[in-house]
Structure formats: C-alpha cells, structure tokens
Specification:
With 187 residues, the protein is an alpha+beta fold. Helices cover 40% and strands 22% of the residues. It starts with a helix and ends with a strand. Bound molecules: zinc ion.
Length: 187
C-alpha cells in the first residue's frame, strides 16, 4: 500500500485518535481526509493542459484520474496508460509542501513513455536514459516535472523529503524526476 507510506507519521495519528473508523474512513484519513485533491499540468512540449480532481469525498475520482491519464500521455505518439494514482498524490504533496496553489499548472516534461518512445530515446542517448528511471515511466509511475516559480533545487529538496519513491535531479535539463518505485535518488 504505497499511499500508506506517504506522510504516514502525520496523518495516521489523527486517524487513530478519531476512534472507530470504516476501512474507507481509515484509508481516507491516511490519504489526508475527504477534502478534494486536484492536480494541474501543462505539457511543455505541446502546451496541452489538464486540471482534474483525483480524490474526493468518495475516494479516488475515476473520471479525474482518466483525465490525468490523458494529460500525462506519451506526447510523441499519444499513447496513454493508467498512471499510478499514488503518483498524483505524491506530486500534489510536493506542490503543497512548496506552498504552490493547487490550480497552478505543474510543468510536465515527461509522463508516460510508450515502449516505442523509450526505445527511440535509448537509441538517441543523451539526457535521462538511466536504467533505473526509464522503466518507471513505462509503468506509468514516473513524471519529469518543474514547478513554476520554484527554484529547481527547492523542488528537488521537497521531492526528497517525501521519502516516497525515486527522485532524480536534472539541473541542466531543468527538471526533477519523481516516481513511486522504491525510495532511491540519483543525479
Ligand atoms: Zn524521469
């Protein structure tokens, strides 16, 4: 249960203090309550934007997650996959930690990568072809992002502080890679 790992220390205490809870109630409390959670992106290559609610009073919002799947599609060939909802939660937490407003569009350099695109990028070489990170993009568990108005080193520090997955630092390319794989970091 990856969501259990995100911010567990702060939220679990509150959940336990609330006494008897349903399974959903406990899960909702761990995720941060029943308040809605949103995420907005702008793809820097296509300028496409998406702004969707991925969590609400009834839990994960399937419609919103579908919109985010589309927004984070492989922009080179428009293939999409089911992105890991925990990645949306992780990015929203990083954003909130930095004091960035929920409606702010996170700049998306790369989300899902189809096998075709991944092969092409590997053949070309250059930036961000590391073995550890590429599979997470292909699994729908990774994004390369930049937060508007936030220095990249601050975004990097916020991502590391989550201790929730992989973090790669690409200052020359102007982005931070975050994924929901095992906790590790590079760059
Ligand atoms: Zn990446």
């Amino acid at each position: 249960m990856r969501e259990l790992m995100i911010g567990r220390r702060g939220l679990l205490g509150g959940a336990l203090a609330a006494g008897a809870m349903t399974t959903f109630g406990a899960k909702a409390a761990i995720l941060g309550g029943t308040a809605e959670k949103r995420l907005a992106f702008r793809n820097v290559h296509t300028n496409d934007t998406v702004d969707a609610r991925f969590w609400g009073a009834n839990g994960w919002d399937a419609q919103g997650l579908a919109e985010l799947n589309h927004g984070l599609r492989d922009w080179r060939n428009n293939e999409q996959t089911n992105m890991d909802p925990a990645l949306m939660l992780l990015i929203s937490r990083i954003r909130d930690t930095l004091g960035v407003a929920p409606q702010t569009k996170v700049e998306l350099i790369s989300g899902y990568r189809s096998p075709e695109t991944n092969s092409a990028l590997r053949a070309r070489g250059g930036e961000h072809t590391g073995v550890a990170s590429k599979s997470q993009h292909m699994l729908g568990k990774a994004s390369d992002i930049h937060m508007p108005g936030i220095a990249l080193d601050r975004l990097h520090a916020a991502a590391l502080s989550m201790q929730a997955g992989g973090v790669g630092y690409y200052p020359r390319d102007g982005f931070v890679h975050v994924d929901t794989g095992r906790v590790r970091h590079w760059g």
